[in-house]
Amino acid sequence: MSDTHTIAVAMSGGVDSSTAAAMLAREGHKVIGLTMQLWNQRRLPGLAAGTTGGRCCSLDDVYDARRVAENLGIPYYVLNFEERFEREVVRPFLDEYLAGRTPIPCTLCNNFLKFDEFLETAAGLGAERIATGHYARITRDPAIGRYQLRRGADPAKDQTYFLFGLTQEQLSRTLFPLGEMTKPEVRELARTFELPVAEKDDSQEICFVPNGDYAAFLNAYMTEQGTPRPETHGEIITMDGLVLGRHAGVHNFTVGQRRGLGIAAGTPLYVIATDSATQRVIVGPDEELLCKRLTASKVNWLSIEVPGETVRADVKIRNKHVAAAATVAAIEGGARVEVVFDEPQRAVTPGQAAVFYQGDLVLGGGWIDSRPD
Q1: CB burial string 134-173: b at 16+ within 10 A, e below
Q2: Mean pLDDT of 347-368
């Protein structure tokens, strides 16, 4: 960019956001470092005692972000978004699991905080734009007058799966300085900038779920809140209705799960589906996980207008899933879609996102609500 701007950088204390801030500061922009305090990690101490590290947004991360800001000579503030984070991310996470779905809290956080509340707060501090350390790119197509989200140049780090819910307004005010870089290039640049976090490991866990144990978190959180535990125990059955055992709650299971079923069988069995209405967990052999169709709702058409006819796209159904060729049909005015894959896909999971790509362009995405077949 030739023009300079006042840019608020979401600083998580990691190498990516720190490098993004350093790049913008060295380009001559007025950079403001902001860290979002989302979750008090002193809560639920019984869970925290078992953690092995690797959680994002920890107190150590705040300390590291402050050190980087001092190193760069930029103003730095911590924003307390804990109340909204609990309302917009943690509570829906709980509700989704109890309903037998598998949610993505990081996408909810992006939609309702990092690119919503954060933008608003940044504007109040005089920042015209915000920047994050996401591996993604933004372009603009003047022919259709739309900003477009594109995959990051590093396929191993691309984070567009979590960003499908952004709006045109948010894209117009957002920068992804790392979008054209690979992770090794970012680390090398951080060393060049002599950032104190240049060798810091990446965070791997959801900030409020130590060790990735979702069921333990849900139980501890409901106890803390004094929320009566709903009766979600029930039967574990096969696809043809044979009862194999009982379980302590549908929220303990997710589609594709093999371990921890609590049943003995002669052949490996996997969770095929959970039914919150009957509290049943349906299990079967691996081939039963294959599915050729899905529907998704709350669809956001990001880089294109709602298509008037079916479109061909590569569709990702999980972050680590290799996008698969499919036909996507907009229904109900584009608010929902039906996706038909060329080849059956494994473990289509309600609550996860289906994100549609054409090459590196993110057309849009929605929340998987069923697998019709």
Answers
A1: bbbbbeeeeeeebbbbbbbbbeebbbbbbbbbbeeebbeb
A2: 96
Lowest pLDDT segment from 171-180, 269-278, 345-354: 269-278
Question: Homologous superfamily of 231-284 in CATH?
Answer: Adenine nucleotide alpha hydrolases-like domains (2.30.30.280)
Which residues have CB under 8 Å from 322's CB, separation 6+? 316
The per-residue pLDDT for range 150-194, each reduced to its tens digit, is 999 999 999 999 999 999 999 999 999 999 999 999 999 999 999
Q: In the chain, which segments carry CATH 2.40.30.10? A: 291-370
CATH code of the domain occupying 6-133+177-212 = 3.40.50.620
Q: What is the 3-state secondary structure (H, E, C) of the chain?
A: CCCCCEEEEECCCCHHHHHHHHHHHHCCCEEEEEEEECCCCCCCHHHHCCCCCCECCCHHHHHHHHHHHHHHCCCEEEEECHHHHHHHHHHHHHHHHHCCCCCCHHHHHHHHHHHHHHHHHHHHCCCCEEECCCCEEEEEECCCCEEEEEECCCCCCCCHHHCCCCCHHHHHCEECCCCCCCHHHHHHHHHHCCCCCCCCCCCCECCCCHHHCHHHHHHHHHHHHCCCCCCCCEEEEECCCCEEEEECCHHHCCCCCCCCCCCCCCCCCEEEEEECCCCEEEEECHHHHEEEEEEEEEEEECCCCCCCCCEEEEEECCCCCCCEEEEEEEEHHHCEEEEEEEEEEECCCECEEEEEEECCEEEEEEEEEECCC
- The matching CATH number, chosen from 2.60.40.10, 3.40.50.410, 3.30.70.1150, 2.40.30.10, for 291-370 is 2.40.30.10
Cα–Cα dist 96/90, whole Å = 10
The residues annotated with a catalytic role in the active site are: 109, 207
